[in-house]
Protein backbone atom coordinates (compact mmCIF):
# COMPACT_ATOMS: atom_id res chain seq x y z
CA UNK A 1 0.00 0.00 0.00
CA UNK A 2 2.77 2.41 -0.93
CA UNK A 3 0.30 4.88 -2.46
CA UNK A 4 -2.21 4.81 0.38
CA UNK A 5 -3.63 8.28 0.96
CA UNK A 6 -2.48 9.51 -2.45
CA UNK A 7 -4.85 10.89 -5.10
CA UNK A 8 -3.81 10.49 -8.73
CA UNK A 9 -5.47 12.06 -11.76
CA UNK A 10 -5.02 9.65 -14.66
CA UNK A 11 -5.28 11.77 -17.80
CA UNK A 12 -5.71 9.86 -21.05
CA UNK A 13 -5.17 11.20 -24.57
CA UNK A 14 -5.94 9.80 -28.03
CA UNK A 15 -3.32 7.09 -28.52
CA UNK A 16 -4.09 3.42 -29.07
CA UNK A 17 -2.12 2.81 -25.87
CA UNK A 18 -5.20 4.11 -24.07
CA UNK A 19 -6.40 0.49 -24.07
CA UNK A 20 -3.80 -0.18 -21.34
CA UNK A 21 -5.22 2.41 -18.94
CA UNK A 22 -7.77 0.15 -17.25
CA UNK A 23 -4.92 -2.13 -16.19
CA UNK A 24 -2.84 0.91 -15.19
CA UNK A 25 -5.67 2.23 -13.02
CA UNK A 26 -6.05 -1.18 -11.35
CA UNK A 27 -2.33 -1.32 -10.53
CA UNK A 28 -2.33 2.17 -9.00
CA UNK A 29 -5.36 1.28 -6.90
CA UNK A 30 -3.72 -2.01 -5.86
CA UNK A 31 -0.95 0.08 -4.31
CA UNK A 32 -3.54 2.10 -2.37
CA UNK A 33 -4.09 5.16 -4.59
CA UNK A 34 -7.40 6.87 -5.28
CA UNK A 35 -7.59 7.34 -9.05
CA UNK A 36 -9.70 9.83 -11.03
CA UNK A 37 -9.73 9.56 -14.82
CA UNK A 38 -9.86 12.41 -17.33
CA UNK A 39 -10.23 11.66 -21.06
CA UNK A 40 -9.86 13.83 -24.13
CA UNK A 41 -12.51 13.53 -26.83
CA UNK A 42 -10.09 11.49 -28.95
CA UNK A 43 -9.42 9.13 -26.04
CA UNK A 44 -13.13 8.34 -25.69
CA UNK A 45 -13.03 6.91 -29.21
CA UNK A 46 -10.42 4.35 -28.08
CA UNK A 47 -11.43 3.45 -24.52
CA UNK A 48 -14.98 3.95 -23.23
CA UNK A 49 -15.41 6.21 -20.16
CA UNK A 50 -17.52 3.48 -18.54
CA UNK A 51 -14.48 1.20 -18.47
CA UNK A 52 -12.48 3.79 -16.54
CA UNK A 53 -15.40 4.52 -14.21
CA UNK A 54 -15.65 0.81 -13.44
CA UNK A 55 -11.87 0.55 -12.97
CA UNK A 56 -11.52 3.58 -10.69
CA UNK A 57 -14.88 3.65 -8.93
CA UNK A 58 -15.07 7.39 -9.61
CA UNK A 59 -16.91 9.55 -12.20
CA UNK A 60 -14.90 10.14 -15.37
CA UNK A 61 -14.34 13.63 -16.76
CA UNK A 62 -14.74 13.90 -20.54
CA UNK A 63 -15.64 17.60 -20.78
CA UNK A 64 -15.02 20.75 -18.78
CA UNK A 65 -18.21 21.82 -17.01
CA UNK A 66 -19.34 24.53 -14.64
CA UNK A 67 -18.42 22.26 -11.74
CA UNK A 68 -14.76 23.07 -12.51
CA UNK A 69 -13.55 19.57 -11.72
CA UNK A 70 -10.05 20.56 -12.81
CA UNK A 71 -9.80 23.03 -9.90
CA UNK A 72 -11.05 20.46 -7.40
CA UNK A 73 -8.20 18.19 -8.41
CA UNK A 74 -5.43 20.40 -9.78
CA UNK A 75 -6.20 23.89 -8.46
CA UNK A 76 -4.28 25.68 -5.71
CA UNK A 77 -5.97 23.60 -3.02
CA UNK A 78 -6.50 20.60 -5.28
CA UNK A 79 -6.78 17.06 -4.00
CA UNK A 80 -4.38 15.56 -6.53
CA UNK A 81 -0.90 14.51 -5.48
CA UNK A 82 0.05 13.73 -9.08
CA UNK A 83 -1.22 14.32 -12.60
CA UNK A 84 -0.28 11.25 -14.63
CA UNK A 85 -0.82 11.66 -18.38
CA UNK A 86 -0.65 8.20 -19.90
CA UNK A 87 -0.62 7.82 -22.80
CA UNK A 88 0.44 11.32 -23.77
CA UNK A 89 0.47 12.09 -27.49
CA UNK A 90 3.08 14.32 -29.12
CA UNK A 91 0.26 16.77 -29.81
CA UNK A 92 -0.62 17.05 -26.11
CA UNK A 93 3.03 17.35 -25.10
CA UNK A 94 3.43 20.24 -27.52
CA UNK A 95 0.35 22.01 -26.19
CA UNK A 96 1.43 21.72 -22.57
CA UNK A 97 4.95 22.88 -23.41
CA UNK A 98 3.63 25.96 -25.23
CA UNK A 99 0.90 26.81 -22.73
CA UNK A 100 -1.97 25.90 -25.06
CA UNK A 101 -5.16 24.77 -23.34
CA UNK A 102 -7.95 23.41 -25.53
CA UNK A 103 -8.75 19.92 -24.16
CA UNK A 104 -9.76 18.44 -20.85
CA UNK A 105 -6.27 17.07 -20.28
CA UNK A 106 -4.45 20.31 -21.13
CA UNK A 107 -6.78 22.19 -18.75
CA UNK A 108 -5.78 19.86 -15.92
CA UNK A 109 -2.12 20.24 -16.90
CA UNK A 110 -2.27 24.04 -17.06
CA UNK A 111 -3.71 24.16 -13.55
CA UNK A 112 -1.30 21.56 -12.18
CA UNK A 113 1.65 23.60 -13.48
CA UNK A 114 0.21 26.72 -11.90
CA UNK A 115 -0.43 24.97 -8.59
CA UNK A 116 2.85 23.11 -8.24
CA UNK A 117 1.27 19.67 -8.55
CA UNK A 118 3.74 17.16 -10.04
CA UNK A 119 3.13 16.00 -13.61
CA UNK A 120 4.36 12.71 -15.03
CA UNK A 121 3.99 11.99 -18.75
CA UNK A 122 4.18 8.63 -20.52
CA UNK A 123 4.61 9.53 -24.23
CA UNK A 124 3.20 7.39 -27.05
CA UNK A 125 3.74 8.23 -30.73
CA UNK A 126 5.40 7.09 -33.92
CA UNK A 127 9.19 7.35 -33.84
CA UNK A 128 9.18 9.93 -36.63
CA UNK A 129 6.90 12.14 -34.54
CA UNK A 130 9.08 11.82 -31.44
CA UNK A 131 12.22 12.53 -33.48
CA UNK A 132 10.72 15.68 -34.97
CA UNK A 133 13.05 18.53 -33.85
CA UNK A 134 10.01 20.52 -32.75
CA UNK A 135 8.86 17.62 -30.54
CA UNK A 136 12.37 17.32 -29.10
CA UNK A 137 12.28 21.04 -28.27
CA UNK A 138 8.90 20.57 -26.59
CA UNK A 139 10.29 17.77 -24.46
CA UNK A 140 13.19 19.97 -23.37
CA UNK A 141 10.72 22.70 -22.49
CA UNK A 142 8.58 20.29 -20.47
CA UNK A 143 11.61 19.25 -18.46
CA UNK A 144 12.46 22.90 -17.85
CA UNK A 145 8.95 23.29 -16.45
CA UNK A 146 9.59 20.42 -14.04
CA UNK A 147 7.51 17.85 -15.90
CA UNK A 148 8.91 14.29 -15.69
CA UNK A 149 8.74 11.83 -18.58
CA UNK A 150 8.64 8.03 -18.59
CA UNK A 151 10.77 7.04 -21.57
CA UNK A 152 8.86 5.36 -24.39
CA UNK A 153 9.77 1.89 -25.69
CA UNK A 154 11.22 2.16 -29.18
CA UNK A 155 10.18 -0.81 -31.30
CA UNK A 156 8.42 -1.49 -34.59
CA UNK A 157 9.02 2.12 -35.76
CA UNK A 158 6.99 3.34 -32.79
CA UNK A 159 7.77 5.08 -29.55
CA UNK A 160 5.33 2.99 -27.55
CA UNK A 161 4.05 3.93 -24.12
CA UNK A 162 6.13 2.32 -21.38
CA UNK A 163 4.64 -0.81 -19.88
CA UNK A 164 2.34 -0.56 -16.88
CA UNK A 165 4.93 -1.89 -14.42
CA UNK A 166 7.42 0.81 -15.46
CA UNK A 167 4.86 3.61 -15.17
CA UNK A 168 3.76 2.45 -11.73
CA UNK A 169 7.40 2.27 -10.60
CA UNK A 170 7.89 5.89 -11.68
CA UNK A 171 4.74 6.92 -9.84
CA UNK A 172 6.00 5.19 -6.70
CA UNK A 173 9.34 6.96 -7.10
CA UNK A 174 7.70 10.37 -7.59
CA UNK A 175 5.29 10.04 -4.66
CA UNK A 176 7.58 8.04 -2.38
CA UNK A 177 9.57 9.38 0.59
CA UNK A 178 12.46 10.48 -1.69
CA UNK A 179 14.86 9.92 1.21
CA UNK A 180 17.46 8.48 -1.17
CA UNK A 181 17.16 11.25 -3.76
CA UNK A 182 20.45 12.09 -5.52
CA UNK A 183 22.25 9.25 -3.72
CA UNK A 184 24.21 6.64 -5.65
CA UNK A 185 23.20 3.14 -4.58
CA UNK A 186 24.86 -0.07 -5.73
CA UNK A 187 23.22 -3.47 -5.18
CA UNK A 188 25.19 -6.62 -5.96
CA UNK A 189 22.95 -9.68 -6.29
CA UNK A 190 22.72 -13.18 -7.71
CA UNK A 191 25.37 -15.92 -7.60
CA UNK A 192 28.81 -16.25 -9.09
CA UNK A 193 29.61 -19.33 -11.20
CA UNK A 194 33.02 -20.97 -11.17
CA UNK A 195 33.76 -23.08 -14.30
CA UNK A 196 34.80 -26.71 -14.01
CA UNK A 197 34.99 -27.08 -17.78
CA UNK A 198 33.34 -25.30 -20.70
CA UNK A 199 29.94 -26.73 -19.73
CA UNK A 200 29.79 -27.28 -15.96
CA UNK A 201 30.12 -24.84 -13.09
CA UNK A 202 30.31 -24.67 -9.29
CA UNK A 203 27.84 -22.17 -7.87
CA UNK A 204 25.67 -21.24 -4.88
CA UNK A 205 21.91 -21.43 -4.54
CA UNK A 206 20.45 -17.99 -5.19
CA UNK A 207 17.40 -16.55 -6.93
CA UNK A 208 18.68 -12.98 -6.76
CA UNK A 209 15.25 -12.05 -5.39
CA UNK A 210 16.36 -10.18 -2.27
CA UNK A 211 18.87 -8.07 -4.19
CA UNK A 212 16.38 -7.20 -6.91
CA UNK A 213 13.82 -6.15 -4.28
CA UNK A 214 16.47 -3.99 -2.57
CA UNK A 215 17.26 -2.30 -5.87
CA UNK A 216 13.56 -1.76 -6.64
CA UNK A 217 13.01 -0.21 -3.21
CA UNK A 218 16.03 2.07 -3.65
CA UNK A 219 14.63 3.25 -6.99
CA UNK A 220 11.25 3.95 -5.42
CA UNK A 221 12.97 5.96 -2.67
CA UNK A 222 14.58 8.18 -5.33
CA UNK A 223 18.09 6.75 -5.53
CA UNK A 224 20.36 6.73 -8.55
CA UNK A 225 20.54 2.94 -8.38
CA UNK A 226 22.56 0.36 -10.27
CA UNK A 227 22.15 -3.40 -10.00
CA UNK A 228 25.06 -5.76 -10.57
CA UNK A 229 23.67 -9.20 -11.23
CA UNK A 230 25.10 -12.69 -11.44
CA UNK A 231 23.21 -15.93 -12.04
CA UNK A 232 19.60 -15.44 -10.94
CA UNK A 233 16.08 -16.77 -11.31
CA UNK A 234 13.95 -13.73 -10.41
CA UNK A 235 12.82 -11.50 -13.28
CA UNK A 236 14.55 -8.12 -13.41
CA UNK A 237 12.34 -5.09 -14.15
CA UNK A 238 13.27 -3.41 -17.42
CA UNK A 239 13.49 -0.04 -15.70
CA UNK A 240 16.31 -1.10 -13.37
CA UNK A 241 19.75 -0.34 -14.86
CA UNK A 242 21.93 -3.41 -14.46
CA UNK A 243 25.31 -4.93 -15.29
CA UNK A 244 26.12 -8.62 -15.30
CA UNK A 245 28.97 -10.65 -13.84
CA UNK A 246 29.67 -14.37 -13.86
CA UNK A 247 32.77 -15.49 -11.94
CA UNK A 248 34.14 -14.22 -8.66
CA UNK A 249 37.13 -12.95 -10.62
CA UNK A 250 34.95 -10.86 -12.93
CA UNK A 251 33.06 -9.45 -9.95
CA UNK A 252 36.36 -8.59 -8.26
CA UNK A 253 37.38 -6.58 -11.33
CA UNK A 254 34.09 -4.69 -11.19
CA UNK A 255 34.41 -4.16 -7.42
CA UNK A 256 37.60 -2.17 -7.94
CA UNK A 257 35.48 0.39 -9.81
CA UNK A 258 32.59 0.53 -7.32
CA UNK A 259 31.42 4.08 -6.64
CA UNK A 260 28.43 4.62 -4.37
CA UNK A 261 27.20 6.31 -1.22
CA UNK A 262 25.48 3.08 -0.15
CA UNK A 263 26.42 -0.42 -1.28
CA UNK A 264 24.52 -3.61 -0.48
CA UNK A 265 26.04 -6.99 -1.31
CA UNK A 266 23.49 -9.82 -0.97
CA UNK A 267 25.29 -11.68 -3.77
CA UNK A 268 25.96 -15.38 -3.23
CA UNK A 269 29.68 -15.24 -4.02
CA UNK A 270 31.30 -18.65 -4.29
CA UNK A 271 33.71 -19.44 -1.46
CA UNK A 272 35.58 -21.93 -3.62
CA UNK A 273 36.61 -22.25 -7.26
CA UNK A 274 38.18 -25.16 -9.14
CA UNK A 275 41.97 -24.96 -9.06
CA UNK A 276 42.10 -25.51 -12.80
CA UNK A 277 39.41 -25.18 -15.45
CA UNK A 278 39.56 -27.95 -18.02
CA UNK A 279 38.99 -27.23 -21.70
CA UNK A 280 36.03 -28.70 -23.51
CA UNK A 281 33.62 -31.01 -21.69
CA UNK A 282 34.93 -33.62 -19.28
CA UNK A 283 33.59 -37.04 -20.42
CA UNK A 284 31.10 -38.50 -17.93
CA UNK A 285 31.45 -42.10 -19.14
CA UNK A 286 34.92 -42.44 -17.69
CA UNK A 287 33.53 -42.71 -14.17
CA UNK A 288 33.86 -40.46 -11.13
CA UNK A 289 35.40 -37.01 -11.04
CA UNK A 290 37.46 -35.50 -8.25
CA UNK A 291 37.61 -31.72 -8.04
CA UNK A 292 40.32 -29.75 -6.30
CA UNK A 293 38.99 -26.44 -5.04
CA UNK A 294 40.74 -23.36 -3.72
CA UNK A 295 39.27 -20.43 -1.76
CA UNK A 296 38.12 -17.35 -3.67
CA UNK A 297 39.14 -13.86 -2.48
CA UNK A 298 36.81 -12.02 -0.14
CA UNK A 299 35.37 -9.01 -1.97
CA UNK A 300 33.69 -6.89 0.70
CA UNK A 301 36.95 -5.07 1.44
CA UNK A 302 37.08 -3.97 -2.19
CA UNK A 303 33.53 -2.63 -2.00
CA UNK A 304 34.47 -0.80 1.21
CA UNK A 305 36.99 1.29 -0.74
CA UNK A 306 34.34 2.48 -3.20
CA UNK A 307 31.56 3.09 -0.66
CA UNK A 308 31.42 6.52 0.92
CA UNK A 309 28.70 5.88 3.48
CA UNK A 310 26.97 2.62 4.41
CA UNK A 311 28.25 -0.79 3.32
CA UNK A 312 25.85 -3.66 3.97
CA UNK A 313 27.01 -7.27 3.94
CA UNK A 314 24.90 -10.42 4.02
CA UNK A 315 25.60 -13.59 5.98
CA UNK A 316 23.83 -16.82 5.03
CA UNK A 317 24.14 -19.82 7.33
CA UNK A 318 22.24 -23.08 7.78
CA UNK A 319 21.05 -24.92 10.89
CA UNK A 320 22.63 -22.70 13.57
CA UNK A 321 21.24 -20.98 16.66
CA UNK A 322 20.42 -17.26 16.91
CA UNK A 323 23.43 -16.73 19.17
CA UNK A 324 25.75 -18.40 16.66
CA UNK A 325 24.23 -16.36 13.83
CA UNK A 326 24.93 -13.14 15.72
CA UNK A 327 28.51 -14.19 16.46
CA UNK A 328 29.21 -14.93 12.81
CA UNK A 329 27.53 -11.69 11.71
CA UNK A 330 29.62 -9.58 14.07
CA UNK A 331 32.84 -11.29 12.99
CA UNK A 332 32.00 -10.44 9.37
CA UNK A 333 31.13 -6.85 10.31
CA UNK A 334 34.51 -6.38 11.96
CA UNK A 335 36.55 -8.12 9.27
CA UNK A 336 35.03 -6.16 6.37
CA UNK A 337 34.34 -2.87 8.20
CA UNK A 338 30.62 -3.18 7.53
CA UNK A 339 28.01 -0.78 8.80
CA UNK A 340 25.27 -3.41 8.76
CA UNK A 341 25.02 -7.17 8.36
CA UNK A 342 21.82 -8.88 7.24
CA UNK A 343 21.99 -12.48 8.45
CA UNK A 344 19.67 -15.42 7.97
CA UNK A 345 19.29 -19.16 8.13
CA UNK A 346 18.72 -20.33 4.56
CA UNK A 347 16.57 -23.21 5.79
CA UNK A 348 13.93 -20.61 6.64
CA UNK A 349 13.86 -19.08 3.15
CA UNK A 350 11.00 -20.43 1.06
CA UNK A 351 10.08 -18.96 -2.32
CA UNK A 352 9.31 -15.26 -1.92
CA UNK A 353 9.33 -15.47 1.89
CA UNK A 354 12.43 -14.89 3.96
CA UNK A 355 13.51 -14.52 7.57
CA UNK A 356 16.30 -12.05 8.39
CA UNK A 357 18.04 -10.35 11.29
CA UNK A 358 19.64 -6.95 10.71
CA UNK A 359 22.68 -6.12 12.85
CA UNK A 360 24.46 -2.78 13.11
CA UNK A 361 28.16 -2.58 13.92
CA UNK A 362 27.40 -2.27 17.66
CA UNK A 363 25.45 -5.52 17.70
CA UNK A 364 21.99 -3.99 17.93
CA UNK A 365 19.53 -6.07 15.97
CA UNK A 366 15.99 -6.38 14.68
CA UNK A 367 14.37 -9.36 13.00
CA UNK A 368 11.78 -9.71 10.27
CA UNK A 369 9.92 -12.57 8.63
CA UNK A 370 7.80 -12.09 5.53
CA UNK A 371 8.03 -11.31 1.84
CA UNK A 372 11.34 -10.31 0.29
CA UNK A 373 9.76 -7.02 -0.84
CA UNK A 374 8.88 -6.09 2.75
CA UNK A 375 12.24 -7.36 3.96
CA UNK A 376 13.91 -4.95 1.53
CA UNK A 377 11.92 -2.06 2.99
CA UNK A 378 12.96 -3.10 6.52
CA UNK A 379 16.60 -3.18 5.49
CA UNK A 380 16.37 0.29 3.96
CA UNK A 381 14.63 1.60 7.08
CA UNK A 382 17.51 0.30 9.18
CA UNK A 383 20.11 1.88 6.88
CA UNK A 384 18.38 5.26 6.85
CA UNK A 385 17.11 5.45 10.42
CA UNK A 386 19.14 2.91 12.39
CA UNK A 387 18.37 -0.49 13.89
CA UNK A 388 15.53 -0.22 16.35
CA UNK A 389 16.42 -3.26 18.46
Task: Write up what this structure looks like.
The protein is of the alpha/beta class and 389 residues long. It has 2 domains: 7-175, Flavin prenyltransferase-like (Rossmann fold, 3-Layer(aba) Sandwich); 184-385, CoaB-like (Rossmann fold, 3-Layer(aba) Sandwich), CATH 3.40.50.10300. The protein has 14 helices and 20 strands. The chain has helices at 21-30, 41-44, 49-56, 69-74, 90-97, 104-115, 127-130, 133-144, 164-175, 209-220, 248-255, 300-305, 322-336, 372-385; strands at 7-12, 34-39, 82-88, 119-123, 125-126, 148-149, 153-155, 158-160, 184-189, 193-195, 201-203, 224-229, 242-244, 262-265, 272-274, 293-295, 311-317, 340-345, 353-360, 365-371. It has an 8-stranded mixed sheet with strand order 13-12-9-14-17-18-19-20, sandwiched between helices. Strands 2-1-3-4-6 form a 5-stranded parallel sheet, with helices on both faces. Strand 7 (153-155) and strand 8 form a beta hairpin. The chain is elongated, with a radius of gyration of 25 Å.
Amino acid sequence: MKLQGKTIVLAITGSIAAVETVKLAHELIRHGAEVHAVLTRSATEIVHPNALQFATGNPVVTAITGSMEYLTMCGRDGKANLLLIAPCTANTMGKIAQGIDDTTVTTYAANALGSGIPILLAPAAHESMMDNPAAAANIRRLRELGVELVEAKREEDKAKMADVETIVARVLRRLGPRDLQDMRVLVVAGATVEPIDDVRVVTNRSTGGTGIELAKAAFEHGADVELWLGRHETTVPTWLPSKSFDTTESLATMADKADAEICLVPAAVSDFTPTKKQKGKIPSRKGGLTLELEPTPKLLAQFRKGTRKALVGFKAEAGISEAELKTKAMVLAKEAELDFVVANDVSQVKGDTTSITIFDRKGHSESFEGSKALAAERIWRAILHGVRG
